[in-house]
Each structure stands twice: as C-alpha cells, then as structure tokens.
Amino acid sequence: MEKKFRIFATCDIGSDAVDLLRARGYDVEVYPQPEAPPKKLIVEKVTSGIDGLITTLRDPIDAEIFEAGKNTLKVVAQDAVGFDNINRADANRYKIPFTHTPDVLTEATAEFAFFMMGVLARKMWPAEQLLRDNRWGYWHPYLPFLGDEVTGKTIAVIGTGRIGLALIKKCAGFDMNILCYDPAYENHNYINAIQEEMSLRHGRGISREKNWIKYVPFEDSLRHADFVSIHVPLLRPGESPTPTYHLFNERTLRMMKPTAFLINDSRGPVVDEVALVKALRENWIAGAALDVYEKEPLPPDSPLRDPAIVDRCRLYPHFASAARITRLSTDPNKGMAGRCIQGLIDVLESNYGGDITKMPYVVNKEVFAKS
Ligand code: NAD
Q1: How many domains does the chain contain in total?
Q2: Could you tell me the pTM of the whole model?
Q3: By residue range, what is the domain housing residue 214?
C-alpha cells in the first residue's frame, strides 16, 4: 500500500477489528477509556490530520469536527446503524462521507425488543424480586400478582424498516396479530408473506387462531394494540416531513389502551419521558420497557427511576445490539465492527472504482452523486 492511513477511534470497537486495520498497514489510535472522549480531544485528533475517524452514537459530529478535518479527513465510520449524532447537513457541506452499520444488528435489536416485551408483560422482574426477597410464601392462582400473555395479543410495530420487519417475523412465531405503521416505507410483499405464513400455520393446525397483519394509520395502531414497539430513527423537526422526536407524548400516549405496554429500543428522544412517567404514574398505560433515553447514561435523578412505578417500568442500558457476534465479529456480514471497518476501508482504499455512491455503507451518498 502506498499510503499509511491514520485513524482515530473514539472507542475500542474490538481488538480483532483494530488488528485487521493494523495488518493492512493502518496507523490506528484507540481512545482507551470506556467513556466517550471529550469533543475537544476529537477536534484535536482531527486537526492533527487523521484520514479516518471511527465514531459511535455518543460522539457529537458536526461542523466543528468537519472544519477541523477540512482537506484531510476522508471518512467518518460510525459503529452503529443510527447516526443522529452526526450532522448530515454539515457532513454534506464539507463533502465528507460517513458510513454506518445497518443489517448486522437487526436481529439482535429486534429480539431484544421482543425479550423486553416478555419480561415486562410477564412481570419477570418483580417475580424474581419476590423470590430473592424471601416473599414467596405460597403458590396461589392469582396472588400476589399476574402477568399478561404475549401469545395471541396484538402488537403495533411503529417503523417497518429493517428492525421493525425482523420483530414482525418473531411476533408471527408467537401467534400475535400485528398492526404496522410507517409513513415512508410500507413493505407489502413482506407483510403479505407473513400473512401467508400465519394462514398456513392455522391451516396446518400449528396455530389455534388465524392471526392477521396489516398496515394502519398511526392512531389506529395505538388505539388497538396490546403492545406498541418503536423502531424508528430519531428525526428532529426539520429533518423529515414526519419527524419522530417526541412522537410519543401526552397526546399519543393517551391514545393507547390502559392495558397496553410500550417498548422502545430505538432512540430515547422519540419518547417524551416526562409524559411517559406521568402515563405510568397515572396508569394511562400498563407499563413500559426502555433501552434508550433522552439523556444517556440515564441520570441518577431521572423520574423513570421512581420506586412507585418500578413494577411496570423496565430499564436497560442501551443494550439491544450488545450481543457478542453482533458487536464484535469482523465479518462485515455478521458484525458491527466488521461492517464499520469495511465502510472505512471502502472509502479510504477507493473500492467500487472510488465511486462513493456505490459504497453500500455510506449514508450521505446524495452529496457525491454527479448532477
Ligand atoms: P430503518 O431505517 O431500516 O427503519 C426505520 C423505519 O422507520 C423506516 O422504514 C422509516 O420509514 C420509518 N420511519 C421514519 N419516520 C417514521 C415515523 N414518523 N413514524 C413511523 N416510522 C417512521 O432503520 P433500522 O435499521 O430498522 O433501525 C431503526 C433505529 O433503531 C435506528 O435508527 C437506531 O436509532 C435504532 N437502533 C437502536 C439500537 C439499540 O441498541 N437500542 C440498535 C440498533 C438500532
């Protein structure tokens, strides 16, 4: 290789991936702490003339960073599918491509949403607490409490992109009925195939009831679902005709059934947490399971930690994609680390004939399209 590319990674994406880059002759510096580096340090590293910056969802990447890398920074490679921390307009103004890691975390994130739903609805956490606190004094048909089944219930999947569709597939296996909502992308082929699968399962005696799946307007999905699971990107007002910031607020939470549960492993600011806490305290809904928050890590004084709602509020530390192969595999078809470095390599080594619009993991292709 003629040029030795210099890379700064704001976090360790796994030693195997870093070693792969080093084996190609890259000079890679990895920020050693588990916490995010201060922005000042990222600016410093970019100013020093690095060719590539590996980032995660906790790094604010905006005009200040791109200005520091003007003429030197060639690519930002994000180790996540969501890229709401990267200012796309700023990247485009400086004509710097950024990449992300779609697909490889789809199944892990979808199954985590499913598991959160089960833990919440079947009250697995208060049930284990009961035992651990030595309060399990008897077997009784309904005391001290009961959970709610998932099987046979109706789920609303909000956002039928990669993760939403993967969740749909899993819910079909649990004999659930499915309401789908997505203002920008309706995949009717997929939904029809799931309906065929549901009909076959019923026809062959595998499922007792004949389950159904359909696209409906947002408000209908909220009004009729027993579970509502969110799978949208964070889109702030002005970024989309259908922004998702505070999509779940007092007005929309009040549309849900009082027996319904909310699941969110997309992005925290999609849910107005003040409204959600009110909904849980005042029993507008039956419960919520969250993996993501308006502010991360979740502040110690967050009202979501209120002991009064602990039985119906499950909280996880932005953990949905945190599975071994998903996070660390260097195979770009299996792991985020692999897909992250492949996106970086594609740009730096001018793969695809150097045509950025053909590189699969580049997000902001629009700015490189020849007019
Ligand atoms: P995707 O782009 O394939 O799907 C998102 C879907 O949301 C699209 O179909 C889009 O049309 C739809 N959408 C946009 N605006 C909407 C609106 N107002 N209402 C309903 N739907 C709307 O993305 P994906 O790969 O499925 O990932 C979804 C999001 O999940 C990511 O953007 C990321 O923020 C989040 N995520 C979180 C974790 C985690 O660890 N918790 C892991 C992976 C992804």
Answers
A1: 2
A2: 0.97
A3: 106-315
